[in-house]
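Please, structure for the following, as tokens.
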Amino acid sequence: MVPSAEIKGRIRLVTEEDVRRYREDGVVCLRQAFDPAWVKTVAAGVSRNLAEPSDYAGTLKAGEDDRGGFFDDYCNWQRIPEYRRFVYESPAGEIVGRLMESSTAIFYHEHLLIKWPGTHKRTPWHHDQPYYPVNGWQNCSLWMPLDLVPAEACVQFVAGSHRWGRWFVPRKFASEKNYPLHDSGSTPVIEGVTLEDVPPVAERPQDYEILTWDMQPGDVIAFHMLALHGADGTRMLETPRRVLATRWLGDDARFATRPWEISPTTTGGLRPGDPMACETFPTVWRM
């Protein structure tokens, strides 16, 4: 049984209510899931990442008047020791394993997301799983801020959208246009579902139940990879919005193909239908 709400050894345990909210809404905010030592460790990794960015790194701006910038980089955990320590030694694996109702937690990759003060560039509405070569229901991302984040600058979610039974074509963050298909004459289908364009959430927010939170370092948002989400810029902030997102998979995750270029491009040498757990995507936690 999932334990009742309590703090054990400064680790916030996942509760029955957390699991219920995750199951129903596709997203849950866990207050003080990570103690200050883990926040400090991840922050040191982020500093190292910024000093030594990978080939994936880039900065997006909304135009010449965008004085900030939206920086991102990913798949660096194997070369950044602070990230690796967080993956293997922090409570993250157990947190996601219990939320996914999985007997294992497989680490997929990490994604650094920084919006510098005054950034106009928004994160377009999307959901993550179509970007990835991964099928299966048991998955979870942890959105971990290292700074105070007011709700107006925080990531937002459409409650329950992971249960719509709908998949949406991934969008490029730079142009906010759909990914091009390998075969432009085909109709994209994933797990028997024909993909659609992302609905106009930003234009009609009144049509949806939108969830977001004021966040402090140590808090984390856990969300399903089919949960629709997006975020505004940080025009209102005078400090950075540094976030490390970690992506996790459960027992039923299987490698799959996609009708567009996958992101990230790392496959671990897997073939369609293979379980995702492998040397590249290690099993970090077991029940």
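DSSP finds four helices and 18 strands in the chain. Residues 1-10 have pLDDT under 50 and may be disordered.
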